[in-house]
Amino acid sequence: MLDYKIHADNNSLYNTPPCYGIYMCGLVFEHLLAQGGLVEVEKKNMKKARILYDAIDESDGFYRCPVEKTVRSLMNVPFTLEKSELEAEFIQEVAKEKMVQLKGHRSVGGMRASISNAMPLAGVKRLVAFLKDFQARHV
């Protein structure tokens, strides 16, 4: 019974609603509202994505994003290195800096930075600083 109107019309619960899931959604919604609502969260996400994509695009080809600029994601930023033989070293070094899960999907390769709502701007700036440092040491 997924039609909650039936529950309301009969003033009864035919099964237990997913209480914990509803509770967690409420916490997320409160957090989003505390940040200024979805409009403000979108602005923050656009800023994070712009900073990271700019670093990739301005690397003179050292880093490359395989996604056309008009359809790039605000949440997941895929990128590759001009010299693919450096990718394993990149993953090892970035992990030493406590930045993990950057390795791309096994069927695609490269790297992928997930910069969803939970990732603060400071985390993206830290990754960009690492990108620039890694590039400077390998050019």
Automatic annotation (TrEMBL):
Q: Name one GO cellular component term.
A: chloroplast stroma
The source's domain of life comes to Eukaryota
Which GO molecular-function terms appear in the entry? Answer: O-phospho-L-serine:2-oxoglutarate aminotransferase activity; pyridoxal phosphate binding
Domain annotation Aminotransferase class V: ranges: 4-127
What keywords would UniProt list here? Answer: Amino-acid biosynthesis, Aminotransferase, Membrane, Pyridoxal phosphate, Serine biosynthesis, Transferase, Transmembrane, Transmembrane helix
Q: Which reaction does it catalyse?
A: O-phospho-L-serine + 2-oxoglutarate = 3-phosphooxypyruvate + L-glutamate; 4-(phosphooxy)-L-threonine + 2-oxoglutarate = (R)-3-hydroxy-2-oxo-4-phosphooxybutanoate + L-glutamate
| Matching InterPro entries | Aminotrans_V_dom, Pser_aminoTfrase, PyrdxlP-dep_Trfase, PyrdxlP-dep_Trfase_major, PyrdxlP-dep_Trfase_small
Please list every transmembrane segment annotated in the UniProt record, as residue ranges.
20-41
**A biological process from GO:** L-serine biosynthetic process
The reply to whether Cell inner membrane figures as a keyword in the UniProt entry is no
EC number, UniProt record: 2.6.1.52
Q: What class of enzyme is it?
A: transferase
Listed cofactors:
pyridoxal 5'-phosphate
Question: What pathway does this protein act in?
Answer: Amino-acid biosynthesis; L-serine biosynthesis; L-serine from 3-phospho-D-glycerate: step 2/3
Q: Which PANTHER family match?
A: PHOSPHOSERINE AMINOTRANSFERASE
The family assignment reads:
Belongs to the class-V pyridoxal-phosphate-dependent aminotransferase family. SerC subfamily.
Mind telling me what this protein is named? Answer: phosphoserine transaminase
Q: What is the lineage of its organism?
A: Eukaryota, Viridiplantae, Streptophyta, Embryophyta, Tracheophyta
